[in-house]
Amino acid sequence: xxxxxxxxxxxxxxxLAACGKNEPAATNTAAAPAPAAxxxxxxxxxxxxxxxxxxxxxxxxxxxxxxxxxxxxxxANIEVEFKPIDWNAKEAELLGKRVDALWNGLTILEERxxxxxxxxxxxxxxxxxxxxxxxxxxxKADMAGKVVGxxxxxxxxxxxxxxxxxxxxxxxxxxxxxxxxxxxxLEAGRLDVVxxxxxxxxxxxxxxxxxxxxxxxxxxxxxxxxxxxxxxxxTRNKVNDxxxxxxxxxxxxxxxxxxxxxxxxxx
Length: 267
Fold this sequence. Notes:
The protein is of the alpha/beta class.
């Protein structure tokens, strides 16, 4: 009896073990919580890009985008830090998490959307064409055979490349670290043309209105937005909400009036 009981017990154990093997493993089906919005925002910018972001006579960072970012941070209860970067390496700085946002006249482009999560557009801009006051260049077509300058990594470079039929006819395209240096080369006669963001170009041209002319034609219209990492949707949404609020209550227009003398905000 004892032997039979023992054999039966062993058989039953084997059957139960076999059944257990066929049972699906328990899984945790609960979705991971979405990342929360940042409590501190390190903003990457080109600190030689007036009037969007630049250093004043006291070497302090000032500008339209600086004021916009500070107002957003205040309303969203986010600490903000401004970090000057090599604008030509802006995507690497953002994706490498050395900055949390790109906020400095950043153009919303389809190719950039592949790597960057953009805010809603807050401003409209054009790529304008600047020549010396006594230049024989009167139209875009006159740029053929000329030496053209632009800031490296800027939307001006992208805009000219899209007009391949014309840009292939340039004698040379020279790229600069910033637009101020490009305009200095134009004034010195080392360039024939500078292509630049309108908000920056007109600000600089107005400082020496007798030296430059802005052509009637341009290289297209574009929107400015704030750039975030793809996985930082919560922070992007928070910034979007505050920007919308600032557009509605007139604060964004007030900041624009301070820097441009008109409301250039995209509502």
